[in-house]
Amino acid sequence: MLPKAMRIVSYSFVLTFLLSTSASLLNCSTIAYKFTKDHINTDRCSLLAIKSHLINLDPYHILSKTWSNSNHVCNWTGVACSPRQRERVIALDVSAMDITATLPPQIGNLSFLVSLNISHNHFHGGVPQELNQLRRLAVIDFMSNHLSGEIPSWFGSLPQLKVLFLMDNSFQGVIPPSLTNISNLEVLDLSLNQLNGHIPQGIGNHQSLRIFIAQDNQLTGSLPPTLFNASKLEVLSLQGNNLTGNIPTNICSTPRIEIFSLHSNMLTGKLPANYSHCTELQVLSLSYNFFHGRIPRGIGELRSLKMLYLGTNRLTGAIPTTICNLQNLDVLVLDHNQLRDSIPNCIGNMVALREAYLHSNKLTSAIPTSLWLLKDLLYLNLSSNSLTGSISPSIGNLAVAVVVDLSMNQLSGVIPTTVGSLQTVCYFSVANNRIRGSIPETIASMGNLEVLNLYHNHFSGSIPISLEKLQYLTHFDVSFNELSGEIPSEGPFRNLESQSFLHNRGLCGDQRFHVSPCNVHEDPKRNLMLEYTIIVIVIFGLFYLSVMKGRLVFFLSLRWMFNIAI
User: Fold this and answer.
1) Is residue 76 part of a domain?
2) Which of 271, 272, 354, 384 would be 360's cystine partner, CB 3.0–4.6 Å?
3) What letter would DSSP give residue 461?
4) Parallel, antiparallel, or unpaired: how do β-strands 362-363 and 194-197 relate?
5) Is 478 a member of any domain?
6) Is residue 185 in some structural domain?
7) Rounded (10°) CA dihedral 36, 40, 41, 44
8) Are 127 and 145 in contact (CB under 8 A)?
9) CATH number of the structural domain spanning residue 398
10) H or E, element range at 34
11) CB neighbourhood size of 542 (10 A)
């Protein structure tokens, strides 16, 4: 036993120490005294240290309210313990608490931690070195924070790591080659950072890797062919980088691949020709690159494909008819290429199609009638081609369409009245064509219409006054046509300007439209009533005159007879 004086000094020292520390640490010491046999106290002390680090940086006070002595540590918000004996903390989840702080190094003391989730906060600074002690970690989720610096190379020494989410931070530097050493890694998401350099050659050595996402960084170099040695790979997304070179021909060496996205890079060469082994592929996204040559006929082998993005490249030739084999395709994007010839007549067989973007190519011939049979089509853009012929009355089958853009072609004929069946359309454009005839009254039935572009055509007749009923119409352009009559002035026309009606010599109306005033300002119904009134007055006048004339003849006859009698 210590001498009394020494005990007094020791007590004074401990008291001074306790008074100088936070209440959290005081509670921890008290609990440690009460539960010396409970292993959970080690983790409790670590959690209270973490709480002390974050106590003034937790705007919703979630930790200060729930991490208290009144609850068992395993019942604290965001804390999970081993399910068998509730002895150690195995999961820490402080996601979406709006915390702004550096990452507490005390997390490294939770030695039994298997899952760490700090996502959707405002943690900043680097990743503490102390976290490399967490040898049992299987899941790390740091997404949507402001963490910076280089990705720690010691992540590669965490032998149990299966899931690593680092997306949406500010990490810089290269992808650490040490990550290729994690034999159990299944999910690796490095997207939305500032990473540069090449993709490590050994990434494909991960036979457990299912998801590899490094999109929206500054990665350079070519795709390593070894990347496709990962036999269990299901998702590969490297879009939004500066990758160059060709796509390796062995992309289907990973038969389980479901999503393959490389759009918005600087890739060149021709598209791979053989897809017979990509039986599970659902998304193929290669837009915004520099691919050239034809769309391979083998594309039709992707029977599970739901989304095909090949837009904004340098593809040439005709759209292969084998594309119609894609019975499950929802989205077809081929815009901004140099595709020629006609749209395949078999396009009507693609019954699952919801979005079709074929604009800005060199397509010719008439629009296939079968296209109008795609009754579930939501978005159709065929603009900026050289399509000819007339618009089929079958356009009325697109009953759920939201956008229909046929502008900047060489279409002729008239707009069929069946267009009124497009009651869900918000955007409808046939501008810059050769369409004649009148504007159909049935357009007034397109109740959701917001944009109606009919400019640069040969429309004649008047603007239907019924269009005043289109309450959502914000943009209306009939300039450069041959329209006449009065411009409607009610409903959406109250907010339109003169640019909407330029170069239609026969139009008249309000001076704000910069057109001549009309001779009669009353509406047509009122004019019709006036005409009826005039006709009735004339008839009664003639009748009255005829009656008065008859009376005059009668009196003259009486006078003549009286004179004879005399």
Assistant:
1) no
2) 384
3) E
4) unpaired
5) yes
6) no
7) -170
8) no
9) 3.80.10.10
10) helix 23-34
11) 10
DSSP state of 169: S
**What strands, in cross-sheet order, belong to the sheet with 292-294?**
292-294, 314-318, 338-341, 362-363
User: CB within 8 A of 23, min separation 6: which ones?
Assistant: none
Query: Which residue carries 């007034």 as its tokens?
Result: 444
Strands (E) across 358-470 are located at 362-363, 379-381, 403-405, 427-429, 436-437, 451-453, 458-461
Task: Tokens for 85, please give them.
Answer: 């004996």
Least confident of 7-11, 245-249, 488-492: 7-11
As a whole number of angstroms, the distance between CA 353 and CA 375 comes to 9
| CA-based radius of gyration for the chain | 39
Can you tell me the distance from the alpha carbon of 386 to that of 434, in angstroms, rounded to the nearest whole number?
12
Instruction: For residue 102, give the DSSP letter.
Output: B
Burial status of residue 547 (CB atoms within 10 A of its CB: 0-12, 13-18, 19 or more): exposed
Tokens of 538: 């004339």
Tell me the β-bridge partners of 452.
Answer: 428, 476
Mean pLDDT taken over the chain: 87
pLDDT reported for residue 544: 53
Across 46-156, the runs of DSSP E, i.e. the strands, are 79-81, 89-93, 115-117, 124-125, 139-141, 146-150
Does residue 461 fall inside a structural domain? yes
Contact 376, 400 (CB under 8 A): yes
Confidence of residue 83 (pLDDT cuts 50, 70, 90): confident
Please give the DSSP secondary-structure letter assigned to residue 216: S
Query: 146 is written with which tokens?
Result: 């402001």
CA 12 from chain centre, in angstroms, equals 65
C-alpha span between 330 and 308 (Å, rounded): 8
Tens-digit pLDDT profile for residues 441-496: 999 999 999 999 999 999 999 999 999 999 999 999 999 999 999 999 999 999 99
Q: Which domain holds residue 476?
A: 388-532
Residue in the block written with tokens 């409903």: 491
The 506-508 sheet, strands edge to edge? 436-437, 458-461, 482-486, 506-508
Q: How many domains does the chain have?
A: 1
Work out the pLDDT band at 71, boundaries 50, 70, 90. confident
CB neighbourhood size of 149 (10 A): 13
pLDDT in tens, 517-566: 998 544 544 454 545 555 656 466 555 555 455 544 344 443 433 444 44
Q: Quick one: which of 366, 353, 265 has its CA closest to 312?
A: 265
Instruction: Report how far residue 483's alpha carbon sits from residue 464's, in angstroms, rounded to the nearest whole number.
Output: 11
User: Residue 500's closest CA among 472, 485, 480, 470?
Assistant: 480
